[in-house]
Amino acid sequence: MLRRNLVYNTLIFGFCREGKLEVAFMLKEDMIKQGIQPDKYYTYSFLLHGLCDTGKPEEAIKIWDKNKRIGIGANVYSYRWIIGYCNAHKAEESEKLFNELISTRMIISAYCKSGNIAEAFRLRDDMRSRGIPPTTATYSSFKHGMCKLGLVEDA
């Protein structure tokens, strides 16, 4: 199943890159018909990128909003494309999305530095539930905070 998902995502990426979004979206629908769940990080990132690159950012925003409502998360790349579009067209929306992505990570870092690891983990879990994956920097904050508390083996 993983291999089939990889093949579909590779094709979707290629068609999006070539501006052939109709084919890319047909492949996504075919994935679903075949019982293959579109990857919440790659499949949708490629489609959002393709829409923004071909001058259809409003459609990308609609998919973004729908995915958030139904619990399909986004990754840093998805945020990058949507924020990039918003920077060019809707500064307020861009700032909101940027804050959503960055603020949580900064707060996690602050909690870890102050030794409040439990609250940092709560925020990390909240990030994950909103589809925002922790980064290497986020995990580095956890390691620093846990080592500071003497939890070296747990870090």
Distance between the termini: 33 Å
Helix percentage: over 70%
Whole-number total of structural domains: 2
Structural class: mainly alpha
- The number of helical runs is 8
Radius of gyration: 18 Å
Order of secondary-structure elements: HHHHHHHH
Strand content: under 5%
Largest sheet: none
Shape: elongated
Overall pLDDT level: 79
Task: Describe this entry's structure for a reader.
It is a single chain. The protein is an all-alpha fold. α1 packs antiparallel against α2, α3 packs antiparallel against α4 and α3 runs parallel beside α5. The mean pLDDT is 79.
Question: What keyword list fits this structure?
Answer:
single chain; about 160 residues; mainly alpha; 2 domains; elongated; Pentatricopeptide repeat-containing protein; mRNA binding; TPR-like_helical_dom_sf; PPR_rpt; repeat
